[in-house]
Specification:
110 residues, alpha+beta, Arc Repressor Mutant, subunit A, 3 strands
Length: 110
């Protein structure tokens, strides 16, 4: 991941509703959540939620998949792991292997 991509991901998460959406999708796991249900659960207007989901998608943090007539969203854990790895790549005074237990603890195999 490069700096511009990391900044886009951090900007995506740097807004309250989008952070809540991402956390909701992380909790939902691989099953994901339909777009309308995301808006309902978070008490948001659907067209506003669509804009938030688009920003998170462009940031590489969520994926959309058509499910019949609706769109189901899931957290893109690969994008999230890439962001974490970028943030921690120079940790531990140039010995990233020391941080490996942290990365393993905060990431899942999903």
């Amino acid at each position: 991941m490069d700096k511009a991509t990391a900044l886009q991901a951090l900007a995506g998460l740097g807004q309250e509703t989008r952070l809540e959406v991402f956390r909701l999708l992380v909790r939902a796991g691989t099953e994901g959540v339909p777009a309308g249900e995301i808006a309902t659960r978070l008490g948001a207007v659907q067209n506003t939620m669509s804009a938030h989901l688009k920003i998170l998608g462009q940031a590489g943090l969520v994926r959309a998949e058509r499910d019949g007539r609706s769109i189901r969203y899931t957290a893109d854990m690969t994008g999230f792991r890439d962001l974490l790895a970028y943030l921690m790549e120079d940790c531990c005074n140039g010995a990233p292997e020391l941080c490996q237990p942290i990365l393993q603890a905060v990431t899942c195999k999903c």
